[in-house]
Amino acid sequence: MLHEKSFSDSVTFLNIWRIVGRSSVKVGISVVKHLVEMCSCYTTPANVTNYVLSMAQTAHFDFWGTWFGKIENSLFYCPITLAILRGNLDQMILFLRYGFQQIKDRIATYNLCFMNSEQAIYSWLRKPLEERKTERKAIIAETILTMVHICTVQNTARRESAAKCLRLLWSAVPTPYVTQREVEEEIQQLFQNQPTEGLLCSFPYRDESRFLRMAYLYGSILPEAPASGVQIRSLQHLSRCAIRSALSKAWNLPQGIDHLPLPYSLKESIQLKTDIG
C-alpha cells in the first residue's frame, strides 16, 4: 500500500514497522514472514521488492534479520534460498544486489519446499543441514538437494531460472565450488549406505547411474567449477566478495559501487552484472 502511494519517507516507514512489531510479537513475526514470502514469490513484481529493500536500507533497518545472515529463528524463511527453489531470478538479483546472504539456519525454507514431495530423499539429505557437524558436507548435501528440486521442476522456464539462480549465488559467495566429483561421491554413498528401496520412489531416477546424471547436470550449470579437487576461489573473486561485504555492512550496496575509484568493467563485476546471463 505504501508503495502504491509512492511513500518514500524511510523514517516514517521504520516508525510504522516498530509500532507493528511492538503491538504483538506474533504479529511482528507474521508480517516478517509475509514480507519474505511475498518478496520471494514468483509472481511478486520486482519493483515492490525493490521498494521494500530500499526503504529498509535507507533506514538502516535489518527488519528481516536476514540482511547479514544473522537470523536464528527457524520460523523464518531464507529469501535467497527461497528464490532459488522457486526459480525467481528477478528476486534473486534484487536480494544479491542489496547484499543479502543465506541465513545459516535455512532448514525451514527447505521444509516449506519439500513438504509434499521427495520426502524420502529429503529425510536423508536434510540431516547434514540440521546437524552441520561438517560444513563442507552440509554444503554438498544442500547442492544435491537443490539439484533434486531443479530436476523435478516440470516447467522448463522455471527450471532454467532456478539453475541461473544457483549460478548467481555461487558468483556472490567466497566459498570454494562444490565439485562434480563431490556430488558424485555423495550420491554413491547414498546407494552404498542407505536402504534405497522406496527411497527413490518419488524421484524420476531409480538407479544409481541415472541418479548420477544430476552430477553431470550440475557440472553443465557451473562449467567453471573444477571437476574434482576443492580449490580456493580466484583472488579477483574473493576481492569482489570482500568489497561487496564491506559496502553491505555500511548500508551502501549497491549505490556505493558507483563511487568506487575503479574501472567501469570492475564495477560491473562487483554488481554481478557480468554473471547475469
UniProtKB/TrEMBL annotation:
It holds the Pfam family SOCS_box. SMART domains: SOCS_box. One of its GO terms (biological process) is intracellular signal transduction. PROSITE patterns: SOCS (PS50225). Gene3D superfamilies: SOCS box. SUPFAM superfamilies: SOCS box-like (SSF158235). Residues 231-271 form the SOCS box domain. This is SOCS box domain-containing protein. It comes from Caerostris darwini.
